[in-house]
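Q: Convert this sequence to structure tokens.
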Amino acid sequence: MRPAIDDDIASLVNIERDVSPFPWNEKQFAESLQKHRSYVLCKGNRVVGFLIFNQVVDEAELLNIAVKSSFQGEGLGAYLLDYFLAEISASTVSAFLEVRVSNFPAIALYEGRGFRHMGERKAYYHGYSGREDAWIMRCDLPLR
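A:
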């Protein structure tokens, strides 16, 4: 793991296009690298995953997380999520995220790390046949 840099944007876009039906574009990644905490996961010199989050006072929001499809099934998504939780644990009370209601593997991963469904955003995501709802999930972290 290392902080993401501008030279990583092409890799981030490629991973996002590989795994997301409606991916972020270069501009969105460039803005996130400037405004948020962004990390890449490398195998050798190859970027295979990323993590982008924001923290305001004692709350954090997971904005985007992905692993290249050819590296999925190796526990790298769990590693990224654990890294996120470790990074925020000393200074954060709660972590939030939104996830497509149809993304069952991600929901299972998040629930396995203590995230719980706390609400929905109707028609939040673009979908192939209209819009798709998002679950809002929250994880309360122990105070240290």
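The chain is about 30% helix and 40% strand.
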